[in-house]
Amino acid sequence: MLWRGDMSWKNVIGRVSFSNCDPIFDGLDPEWTILSAPPAWLTGHVMRRDCIAAPIPSADFASNSDELLLLPEIGIVSNGKVGSVLLFGERPIENMRDIALPTDSSTSKVLLNWIVKNRGLDPKFVESGPDINSMLEKCDGALLIGDRAILASISNPELVRMDLGAEWTRVTGLPMVFGVFVARRDSPRDVLITAHSQMISQVEKFENNDSWRNKVISRTSKKMGFPMDRVEEYFRTEVRNR
Fold it and tell me: Which long-range contacts (CB under 8 A, 24 or more apart) does 7-10 make?
């Protein structure tokens, strides 16, 4: 693997392989090697010292907090609808007998389980590759996250049954923290402080510099094949990085 060569793990930062991290990593100092992976994989990468820091599912941090250090003021958060954690199906959630869950998620699966229990429902959960067509061939519902969820909602808006971020906030009145940035507790503090500071600076630049923000939105749109107005809406009203 590229990051296993002569490049030290201390020079590597992990990122979720979805556009929700673009405001942090687009334009980050090239001194860092970026390790891109699904959110459910990044916990292992941090634990194995493949990278100095990374965003991981908040559910994973809760299970490993004795070994991991939480980095403040940065994350993957929604306050209301998130736009990229969606339940699809041809029937309402109350009538779903089974729901296919993607293998690349942790927090979203925990959240969906909380939602169905809160509604007094008990559908069967089935692990599946994150493909909406194959998921709905075998189950009444399909949970998708990240860019796949956005693309599926653009292509199949009639199949969107629930935005899990919106449901969480509707019930609790609270923001939903899908991902948190962490490092090993034994990480070198000077390197960690530098990495954290630079990521925070990128978020602030995205929030406060309209010209830079538009460039990031344009690059994300071209990279992912999303309409620019959809990317702008996503970053403005749905996902946040703190």
Answer: 7/33, 9/49, 9/50, 9/51, 9/52, 10/52, 10/187, 10/188, 10/191
pLDDT digits (tens, 9 = 90+) for 196-223: 999 999 999 999 999 999 999 999 999 9
Roughly how many angstroms between the first and final C-alpha of the chain, as a whole number? Answer: 31
Give me the phi and psi of 33, to 5 degrees please.
Answer: -90, 135
Burial of residue 216 (CB within 10 Å: 0-12, 13-18, 19+) is buried
pTM of structure: 0.92
pLDDT digit string, tens, across residues 111-147: 999 999 999 999 999 999 999 999 999 999 999 999 9
- Residue 77 is encoded by which pair of tokens? 């958060």
Max Cα-Cα span within the chain: 54
- Give the closest residue to 150 by CA, choosing from 140, 165, 138: 165
Run of H or E including 192 = helix 189-208
Domains and CATH numbers, the chain: 2-77+176-240 (3.40.190.10), 85-172 (3.40.190.10)
For residue 4, the model assigns a pLDDT of: 44
C-alpha dihedral sign at 158, 224, 1, 6: negative
- pLDDT at 6 > cutoff 50: no
The C-alpha atoms of residue 199 and residue 189 are separated, in whole angstroms, by 15
Which residues is 160 bridged to in the sheet?
88
Give 36-82 pLDDT, tens digit per residue: 999 889 999 999 999 999 999 998 998 999 999 999 999 999 999 99
